[in-house]
Fold these 2 entries.
Entry 1:
Amino acid sequence: MESKNIFAAVLAGGVGTRMGNVDKPKQFLNIAAKPIIIHTIEKFVINSRFEAIIVLTPKQWVNNTKDLVKKYIPAAKNVFVIEGGASRSDTIMNAIEYIENNYRLDEETVIVTHDSVRPFVSHRIIEENIDATLEYGACDTVIPATDTIIRSDDNTFINDVPPRKVMYQGQTPQSFRAKKLKEHYNSLSEDEKEQLTDACKIFVLKGEKVALVDGEISNMKVTYPYDLKVAEALLGGNE
Amino acid sequence: MESKNIFAAVLAGGVGTRMGNVDKPKQFLNIAAKPIIIHTIEKFVINSRFEAIIVLTPKQWVNNTKDLVKKYIPAAKNVFVIEGGASRSDTIMNAIEYIENNYRLDEETVIVTHDSVRPFVSHRIIEENIDATLEYGACDTVIPATDTIIRSDDNTFINDVPPRKVMYQGQTPQSFRAKKLKEHYNSLSEDEKEQLTDACKIFVLKGEKVALVDGEISNMKVTYPYDLKVAEALLGGNE
């Protein structure tokens, strides 16, 4: 069998703090009678280019997530649920370690990292992520900024209003040559690691090219309570 | 009568190009059985601090908008519909000219400019806009960036991923001492005027302070077809 050497990492490591009074992390809330995280995993399961789909959750949710995968996607044999890390970067590093230990990690290995709370990612976006990473080594999924972007260093007065036409809002997937991502991450100082809120920045800090892939408005993050209403409306309209 | 010297400008000058196949600018589409622009105007009508509310629309929509105001807000005697300009800045300047010709324009005059397609602006946001402008001379309504912000100068590769904690997404209202706004705008070069996509930038370019007012996620711009579904859901949930 020819090995595909392309992996998905569905990132559900964080415990949401923006969803208000709910007893579950938001990725486990239902839309259209299925947990958000299942909708998301399905998008990768149906793409045959992936060798494995690694799902990373907080430790206390690993077993529950395994049960959900068995219940909703019983036919999927290449979905593996493991524990995420303390930060987003740590979680991605756990996924790469899993690849290294269970498959192989070489110059060709591609990892497509995706937020578990973006269930509406399209087949086209995932395909273009893989292709752009094969061509350039890394890519980010973005949409042109719909709002004016403002910079304020003191949270009180505006410092800058950068020209809107060069500003984008990052979505996911963010995809990388996995070995290079690991090496670059390990070469960062502790300070640099702590300031990271975005995996693509690891490549940017190292002067590497990160290509843009066109995202979609509908590839939204389900972060706030009313996003659930939108999500329901979107699924209601499409199914 | 003590004159209030505070004016609202509801900006409906643009003809939307992002709403897909609709025959009307998006501000005239209905949510909860009323045009979006009427929901928006009502938010200012119920605030007694405004001397007048100036609504600016494309020329061919002025009469229609007047009819809508008569139909839906017959009791409001301080709403005036006039023609907007070619650009957002021109539209704001038309509002200031209207104030100058029909009321007065002095150092104290405040103008609160607001997108006609943000019908969910709250009383708190409007109040804080007025107060911040009285104190600092100008303010902008913003929310912390929910997405990572990316800068790409060539629309192909990432140039920068600025630290998210200093990045904000601009909403409206944007509010100003109106006379100063006019003077600063008139002092810009034609090049500077053409590059303007944001009124606050006029103050920023001139080195003036622009204070931040906390926006709200729900103070969204109804720009895309699915926003209408969200808007319906939000109103459905609140009414």
Entry 2:
Amino acid sequence: MQIILLSGGSGQRLWPLSNEVRSKQFLKIFSEAGGESMLQRVLNQIRRTCAESTVTIATAKKQVTLLKKYLGEDFDLATEPCRRNTFPAIALAAAYLNDVKGVDVNEPVIVCPVDPYVDDNFFAQFHTLAAQITDSAPLVLMGIEPTYPSEKYGYIIPCTKDNVSRVKMFKEKPNLADAQKFIDAGGLWNGGVFAFKLGYVLNKAQELLGTSSHDELTATYDALPNISFDYAVVEHEPNIAVVRYVGAWKDIGTWNTLTEVLESNSIGEVQTDKTCANLHVINNGDVPIICMGLKDAVVVAGTDGILVSDKVASSYIKPFVERLDKQVRFAEKSWGSFKIIDADKHSLTVKVTLNRGSRMRYHSHERRDEVWTLISGAGIVILNDRAKFVRAGDVIKIPAGCKHTVIADEPLKIIEVQLGEDITVEDKIIWQEAI
Amino acid sequence: MQIILLSGGSGQRLWPLSNEVRSKQFLKIFSEAGGESMLQRVLNQIRRTCAESTVTIATAKKQVTLLKKYLGEDFDLATEPCRRNTFPAIALAAAYLNDVKGVDVNEPVIVCPVDPYVDDNFFAQFHTLAAQITDSAPLVLMGIEPTYPSEKYGYIIPCTKDNVSRVKMFKEKPNLADAQKFIDAGGLWNGGVFAFKLGYVLNKAQELLGTSSHDELTATYDALPNISFDYAVVEHEPNIAVVRYVGAWKDIGTWNTLTEVLESNSIGEVQTDKTCANLHVINNGDVPIICMGLKDAVVVAGTDGILVSDKVASSYIKPFVERLDKQVRFAEKSWGSFKIIDADKHSLTVKVTLNRGSRMRYHSHERRDEVWTLISGAGIVILNDRAKFVRAGDVIKIPAGCKHTVIADEPLKIIEVQLGEDITVEDKIIWQEAI
């Protein structure tokens, strides 16, 4: 059995903690001590319940570095050259399994989003889904038994209330009255899990995208239609089965739902008064937060911004985040992290942290000088192919055009002042490593 | 007529924008474009209504630099060596007027807090207060005609409902029912304005503090009793008159009251959704704020922290602020400003801004090195008595023990990295200027 985890979301709904490169699946907020991320949690659950299956993570190119950092090289990655909707992403991952990994077209494939917050039993059901794939029902879905008449989810109406049933119809996010009717009729929430044999989706790719070749899909990816798997495939498939899942299920893609599964009501330096109720405060910033008299609210502060919202309203954040300047102020890299601590007209000051043993890529800039002040650790700086030992307190001047890198012998921290009239992330030339 | 403006408050109730050195009276939030501060507004009103009077500002030593920066040298300052309550502050200011300025003991004095938000007519009434001071009523107060039965203010119950009346009694912050009763009985809010002849308070100082000498009061200031003028004087004075003021009056000492007089519901980079109501957002920080679904709330973000509060609850912020680490992350100085942009174990990174023509004091540190990277402007750096021209892009290393200063020929910005195991504001030795 092959499992494809869809990890390509932009995570705008969890702004300001997630952004284009630091997507929601990496947020480590499931314990006070910065414990498990969403992705780690899901992978551990799959390991326990589907030990014999192979996991492939379908992800955007921008997130590959971070995925490798968190997960090592143990997982296959089907890398999307740019962000597209779920149909192109699933087609590409399927083509990757067939062309690159040599997976047989008859092998069952389960596609699952990376952000369900569920019991292990949810993943154990993957075996049932795989077993239900037949010629007369080539597509099998996971239906989640509803706990309340939610207006937020799509509904699957099965023909029977059995554990496995044919699907009668689908209903997109209904109003409250309709949601109750669907539940009375045995309706299930659509959990976004799809099961099929690999060949099924390769055929759909051939039919709808003109090819099922991994190379061709990759080469033309940015021109592929931006449509969802539901819209392109599910809605047109007359023969679908659904497997019923009874147990805890939350999509933790919004602050409203994510806060429901947090162990603590506050993370970071936070004070709240006694009149606060149903309040979650996540302080990932540098300054203290005081909250008073807030009810049913979420407050999140990070390097990119501050969100203060009624919990229900927080689900509708996306258009507000889209309006923001997209400068990434904090990012984790394979070698460590960087954080913009000051932006001025002709300068940018960045705190750079390197892990022990790591190095930046050897590079130069054309339109900016840099001044590095090492504030802790020790290592080797290479400037125009000449190496030099450095330690805390040392200052390194890097004029425009100078090739440079640093290798951290110990965890290393640098205050980097960039100086120039035109400071952009694009101004970077990568060179062959000198040593 | 002498006017003493009490400007010594710590402004904790307006955290995070005010702090020990950047007190509330300097907040420039009365127009979008960073316009008038509270203090400037009040001084302009006094200039219009009491042109012939002399204004003395009673203030804490910590705030003198900032006061001079904002007001120039046009005003007399009665400087309190440390923070004390209103009785010692008024006694010291009175002694200053008599001993230092030679003001006659028979001259009328009006004491007024610096934070009433009122019509010009409020200050015009000072003439009436001064005229009412007699031997049979040596103390005259300003009574504000209440607009609603507030539980936040003290009440003055006059003998009659005339414009000027004797005071029958005082009532501290009552409950709602009592407040209504007081209003029905002609009660007035106590606005904290006191009028008397200079000799009256000098006598009280002699009687209660053992001296009315400015030098002696200054020398023993930290040992003086920390009591209010109301408690020490007003409550024991049987013969008090009150002048009735009818017109707009707000004490803008809390976010709840201050937001009532702001022209705009948001300042700085802020987005709010359509479901927000009676919301004020003041973003004085570096990152955007998104607010959704908030009602009757105030959100304030600054360099020192973030406040998110129900408006009414925000009045009770003081104990929460007192619990915070008191490190000042941003401060305005006579020569410019500084802002801490990163704090690490053995380093502190500060953005320093110098005004054109200004200079730091010539100083050295014993237990830290500094690295300055000039990011804009030009000037002269002096290191151990040797001067050197510097401009944007230059890097200056200042080892521990090295005497240093900078003189800004143009507005100058520096990223200063402090390095050491024991970085404190106390580690500073001031030297005689070299040039």
